[in-house]
Amino acid sequence: MSNRIIDEALVREAIKLAQPTVAAILAHNGATWGPKWVTGRVMAPGLETDKFEFEFSSDGPKEEWNSGWGDPLRFYDVAEKKLAVAEREKTSTSVVVATRAWCLEEGEYLFPGGVHRDGISVSASGAKGRADEAIAEVVLSLIIMLANLKTDLRIEYKQTKIMA
Questions:
Q1: Strands (E), the chain
Q2: pLDDT single digits (tens) 11-24
Q3: Helical axes 129-156 vs 75-89, angle rounded to 10°
């Protein structure tokens, strides 16, 4: 068991805290193009798995794929590509697309939806790209907030050394 600041329990708590805000984003007029759900990924120091996956829907369980939306998309695959861009370029995917799209590699997308800050990357896919990126930013900000609160608590209790 790791003594790192960020662990899967902390990420799960951040996702739980994000749920009401993300549901409101997905219900907002114009934030989605069809489906009312997103899937995403988190990559952060201290996570036991390479990438932590999450899913949000606007209200209740996600609806089935509607053939009017076109061919079914695997949002986890798109989120994985957005995460790779954010992690590699150390910035949000909207910045990469707007200022250096030539850095995108084969199979990557011109969609916003990935963010990176302070060694943590988060991506979301399923809504419109701007909504995806806002959702990723909400999750990222909550991870950082919880990590800072956990750090403060450890300092308060004199648990200042990170152990393996």
A1: 37-43, 52-57, 114-117, 120-125
A2: 999 999 999 999 99
A3: 60
